[in-house]
Amino acid sequence: MKAINRRRFLSRSTASVALSPVALKAADNQAARRTTARPLVVSTWPFGKAANEKALAVIAGGGSTLDGIEQGVGLTESSGNRSVGLTGIPNAAGVVQQDACLMWGPGHQAGSVCAIEGAVHPISAARRVMEQTKHVMLAGKGARWFAEQQGLETVPVEAHLAKYEAWLKDTQVPAAQGDGKEEENHDTIALLVLDKEGNLGGGCSTSGWGGKLPGRVGDSPILGGGLYVDNEVGAAGATGLGENVMRYCGSFMVVEYMRQGLDPEAACVATIERIAKTDPRGLDLKINFVALDKQGRYGAAGSGNGFSYSVTTQSVSGVLKSASLSDLNVGPIGGNRFED
Fold this sequence. Notes:
By secondary structure, the chain is α+β, with helices and mostly antiparallel strands. The chain has a single domain, classed as (Glycosyl)asparaginase (Glutamine Phosphoribosylpyrophosphate, subunit 1, domain 1), CATH 3.60.20. It has 10 helices and 13 strands. The strands form 2 sheets. An 8-stranded mixed β-sheet has the order 4-3-2-6-5-1-11-12. The model is unreliable at about 1-5, about 10-15, about 175-185 and about 335-340 (pLDDT under 50).
């Protein structure tokens, strides 16, 4: 039988996708980004490594996959991260408003909270929305009220106003005018799991854009924006400037490219290229994606250079560099910053 050229095969088998040289290179290198180990956990940024390991420890200890996702993301929410949890940079009114969502492949279940204030673990509130209500998303004061009714830990919102004033004094830049100090900016935790039964799930949490207008909601709690899970295909998560993800249903697009036959990294690359082709900013988008599929393949890509992601199994846990589509700097650990 005549050998089939891999690039030619990929081009033919994904006829509806115009594969760029970057996407083809990602596909050619996919063999190194595949594992038969289960559970497989993939997440955004180097700080995701600890979250991955926590998720695996919970599952190994008898917890469910959802328990692992909730507690893994919850670890980041409690870690002191500057854009996840109550230690995140407050909005322009001095209040930390958080967004989170959780998806579970079986039954295509989902729960989400947005602009929630004073919640110690918004990912837990998102899970309760999924499991305890007929709704998918709760917002603002209603989300906090629900979290309290569920017995989840909350703190007084006023306790965080002094922190914002101290941050403003330290930056010496009015919130509505300039850029925050980049070394203090981090970004979203998006965590994806392929478990031993072959089921997929994911969670996403952030305190959002530092100095944002009160009530601003980014991509993190938006299903198909910051997170999307399809139990037949794969899962994807996003991090970076949420406005540039949510306007294009970014994580949904990644999963749909995987459905068409692309491996996870090539799907992330193709998504960014498609967004950049439409967006006036071109590749100056400050967006990044991670993904995994039912076969145990995983990958990531960023519109700029410097995005890294964490991959963990029971035997290996490490941080990998993503594919990059430009030499633009994604920032020290993420894209959460003020914009002009």
